[in-house]
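Teaching soon. Got one?

===
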Amino acid sequence: MTRNNRKDPRRSGGFARATKHPVEPPKRAAGRSGDAGRGEIRIIGGDWRGRKLHFPNLPGLRPTPDRVRETLFNWLQFEIAGTRCMDLFAGSGALGLEALSRGAAEVVFVERDAEAGAAIRETLSKLGSQRGTVETREAFDFLAHAAPRPFDVVFLDPPYDQRWLPRLCAALAEGGWLAPGARIYLEDAAERGAPDLPAGWSLLRSRRAGDVGYHLAASQAGPAQTSKQQEQGSA
């Protein structure tokens, strides 16, 4: 499911429409040429720091901006290594690839668009990484029908105009997708402020960058326990 998050600076009103929808994909405005340029992302930190990776120029596919990613992974710098992560609206794969670069044990990229999903697979192959898998499925279908596994970190960056965050958070909380103390990244229109969270979740961080509001939540109080640590504890 490609991302459609930031306003197009060439248009004065409203949010660009999403390319993907559970029923029919509406049209979206063309992406802007920001950060590392159209069709290209730059890994900010970790083993692949500085690597420039390409993704298809699909209408409306807009990776989370470099400065937002940098802040997010500063928040997660002591928690990302060894974790199991899910990039639920993967798009270019920028968030999941950054997590892998910084030592995540596994990332599942969920992306409805077949071309975008194929590009992520190609990138993983070029990087020689066996730690990423791509699910070419619509996000709600994946959460409703895939066998749930607990993830330590989930990246939620759905199309702003769909207002899907409350439904997605509920699906994660109720579906057995989160490890104890899991971290959930949420991105939305800055004008909406802090997101409403399910019972038992807490908001850890909240920032804005232009029209982007981005937040980090925890599924419960206390430090995160990674899935690797859980497996070792139950052995």
In short: The chain has a mean pLDDT of 81. The CA atoms of residues 172 and 178 lie 7 Å apart. The chain has one domain: 40-234. The radius of gyration is 16 Å.
